[in-house]
Design a protein that fits this description.
Blueprint: H1 2-10, H2 16-44, E1 56-62, H3 70-83, E2 88-92, H4 104-113, E3 118-121, H5 125-135, E4 141-145, E5 157-163, E6 191-195, H6 197-200, H7 202-215, E7 220-233, E8 254-258, H8 264-271, E9 277-282, H9 291-303, E10 308-312, H10 313-319, H11 323-326, E11 332-341, H12 345-359
Helix pairs in contact: 3-4, 4-10
Length: 360
């Protein structure tokens, strides 16, 4: 259903039926866009008040639903803050909608930031912040994960991520497109990070940059890519250094498995290893894996003589508990995704954030 919806709003599906549905969604888009605009105007005018969280607050968010690669950016930022002897706490919604279960992203951040970093899960970030300070008064900085539209929590710096390869959610606000609000909202950003810039290409990055500059003149813009840097075996904790080299895939026949929203980037990266990449099985985003799922996929891998299974760290949050993964005759490895910036832009962006924090 999710893919059908995406194909419809993008225009990939043709015919009278999809066209009528797009027209109907355009009608619903009008009140939603108006409501978001009014809400933002009330906050901008001070009619609606943002709550001070009692610590310097950095928001990492986006203006589209999903696909920007936010979790690796939050991980990069918090790990750098910890290295600078700052004690951050990540405030994240962090639950799978309707289930009460911890999300893959929240679990990943919890595992990655141990033991210094704090991850607090809850839809109400104000309440989450108060809970953190009651238990950990040594925390001196909050990171709002997915916080750009969560304006009830006051922030001192807004970092907005935009997927350069699919920048503006098909040009429409929900439900006609994937925009959470009009791109005019980018005026609130202190800095913008274009993700997946390499996959988008220079021409597309240039087009997106011009659109951003028109919507938010003078905003600082950096660019990065999400790259596979190494591998971890099933036994290697995320808080430890990776225990396998990415180059080891050159000598393996490996089969990929993932349940992520946009597997094309992961697939393209794995394809660079040539004939060693012998196949994959993509599940839906946030797929709830079962033992039978894994048994079936391992059989697919055995049929093409695979010697290794490769998955994402996000998927590992679920896979690590499944018996058929732990006892698989074909070993599982997790791809470690890191942020790679254009020359000099990593330090420039980080210093921009930290200098603002130290001046507060």
């Amino acid at each position: 259903m999710e893919q059908l919806y995406l194909d419809t709003i993008s225009g990939a599906t043709k015919g009278a039926g999809p066209a009528i549905l797009r027209a109907a969604l355009s009608v619903v888009e009008i009140p939603y866009k108006g409501a978001m605009g009014l809400r933002n105007a009330l906050f901008d005018a001070g009619v609606k008040k943002a709550v001070d969280l009692r610590r310097w607050t950095l928001s990492v968010g986006n203006i589209t639903a999903g696909g920007t690669g936010k979790t690796p950016v939050v991980r990069w930022l918090t790990q750098r803050l910890i290295a600078d002897d700052i004690t951050p706490a990540v405030l994240t919604r962090g639950y799978v909608k309707g289930t009460g279960e911890l999300s893959d992203e929240a679990d990943l951040l919890t595992r990655a930031l141990q033991p210094r970093g704090v991850v607090q899960v809850g839809a109400d970030r104000v309440a989450s912040a108060a809970r953190v300070l009651s238990e950990r008064p040594d925390v001196n900085l909050f990171v709002l994960d997915d916080g750009f539209q969560h304006r009830r929590a006051r922030r001192d710096f807004d970092l907005v991520l935009i997927n350069a390869a699919d920048a503006f959610g098909h040009g429409h606000v929900h439900p006609r497109g994937l925009l959470r609000e009009s791109i005019a909202g980018l005026r609130r950003a202190d800095a913008i990070l274009l993700t997946h810039a390499g996959r988008a290409g220079e021409s597309r990055v240039g087009e997106v940059t011009k659109a951003i500059e028109a919507a938010a003149p003078g905003v600082s813009i950096a660019r990065c890519d999400h790259v596979l840097s190494s591998l971890r075996s099933a036994a290697c904790p995320l808080s430890d250094a990776p225990d396998a080299l990415l180059d080891s895939l050159n000598d393996a026949r490996f089969f990929a498995i993932a349940g992520i929203g946009h597997p094309a980037g992961f697939q393209a990266t794995l394809a660079r290893f040539g004939e060693g990449y012998v196949g994959h099985h993509w599940f839906g985003d946030h797929h709830h894996y079962t033992d039978s799922d894994i048994c079936a996929v391992v059989e697919e891998a055995r049929a093409v003589n695979a010697t290794a299974m490769v998955t994402t760290e996000k998927d590992w949050s679920k896979l690590m508990w499944i018996p058929s993964v732990l006892h698989s005759q074909i070993p599982f490895f997790r791809a470690d995704v890191r942020i790679s910036f254009a020359d000099g832009q990593e330090q420039s962006l980080y210093e921009r954030i930290v200098s603002r924090y130290r001046q507060a």
